[in-house]
Amino acid sequence: MSTENEGNEVPQAPSAPPAPVDAPAVPADSADSGSVSGAAGPSAAAGPSASGASAAPQGHEGAPSAPAHAPSEAAPYGAPHGTSHGTAHHGAPQPGSAPQAAPAPQAASGAGNWPPPQPPAVPSYATGGGSGSGWGASYHPQEPKPGGRRGGLVAAVLAAALLAGGIGGGVGYWAAERGDSDTNSTTVSAPDTPADLKREPGSVSDIANKALPSVVTIEAQSGGGEGGTGTGFVYDTQGHILTNNHVVASAAEGGKLQVTFSNGKKYAAEVIGRAEGYDVAVIKLKNAPSGLQPLKLGNSDRVAVGDSTIAIGAPFGLSNTVTTGIISAKNRPVTSSDGGQSGKSSYMSALQTDASINPGNSGGPLLDARGAVIGINSAIKPAESGGGLGGQGQSGSIGLGFAIPVNQAKQVAQQLIKTGQPVYPVIGASVSLQQEGANGATISKEAVSGSEPVTPNGPADKAGLKPGDVITKLDDMVIDSGPTLIGQIWTHKPGDKVKITYERDGKEHTVDVTLGQRKGDS
Length: 522
Fold this sequence. Notes:
Blueprint: H1 149-177, H2 204-211, E1 215-221, E2 227-234, E3 240-243, H3 245-248, E4 256-260, E5 266-275, E6 280-285, E7 308-313, E8 321-337, E9 345-353, E10 365-367, E11 373-380, E12 401-405, H4 406-419, E13 423-426, E14 441-442, H5 459-463, E15 470-474, E16 477-478, H6 482-489, E17 497-504, E18 507-514, E19 516-519
């Protein structure tokens, strides 16, 4: 875009050119020809459907008609009369050049008879190969003069841009009001019929729309009237709902549970089983409707850092909320409370995600890019100290959310539906839960709650472990604390054989341990 005429308003074409003081003669064989340059600025459509409206004329399109003849010393078309720009149209005669003779055309009334100058030469790409009308002919401005004109030029350019923006906004609004029915409109509106609003398979909206009918909001109320809100999802067609223990703990003893689906239908529910250590619970709809669609369960062992995640829940009671993120880390040791209901903690080797999770998301599904459940959203790390999502005085999400891997949750759910109580794998030894400065999980040296630090004839005892041993690895997983060891053990099942690396008297040892079991929460 040339800057020769930028920022100057384009005046209306005069009915006749102004008469110069001294009109030079022109040759008789000259042809009517002219060159125009218009400043074009960006357009800013203000109308709801305006997009890309052209604000200022480009080239010759939409430009006003130029006079048939112009004086040799007149300002370039588009500049106010009498203003000199220091540049000339390409091919135009320079001041002082010898004019050529030409028959004088009939001047408009009051203009006087004077011969116009020779029109500028028209390049070969213009109309008629250099003859005829000169619209579209270009010019080559000279280099701007140094000094104070640069600032004025910039200001003029800004003024032109603002003017063009206003014109574009007006055009866009006018086009929107007319429904784009005018074929001369410069805006294009997308069709708004339902058939054209299909979401791409695998998109977040597609996954969310399919999953939302199977995600529920849970309202738990204790016998004393206290309660809270959490989330769950349909586990099977019999009406079992999978959620967190801390979501339903307040209603487990004589309380009430109400489940609301995304379509607004509400159902009463009852607790089938709870696992405080895993922070997993199963409830069941009392009058389960037909046609329930369980969410598909994925394989949390195959999740990789960086995989896309979608979380669905009711943060702060806002049901059917969908957020997205990625898997930030795996096997993150997390300890959380149940909100003060029992004073006990849960341990997990969690999936960490930066998808926005807040109080009320507890128990909701964490989905992968296929829409399969890979975890149960259970805890967050708030900006201030606190426990899990059920903790008191917590702030909102800071991008540190934790989910129970679905492979573990599935095993727990099956056990709860079958027997109503959880089963935990154990090594038969008590370990310190202090994490500050720990380089492993240290087996207690003294009795804990009246029990021996190493259970006689238990798995650890049979493997030769003793009080004071420091466990540093379980299989290939580094153990840096007691909670990390517990979380890793609980990813297994009773009867699994694991390899434990430990240190005793400064020496490292490795033994195989067959995990035992403990039934119920104690």
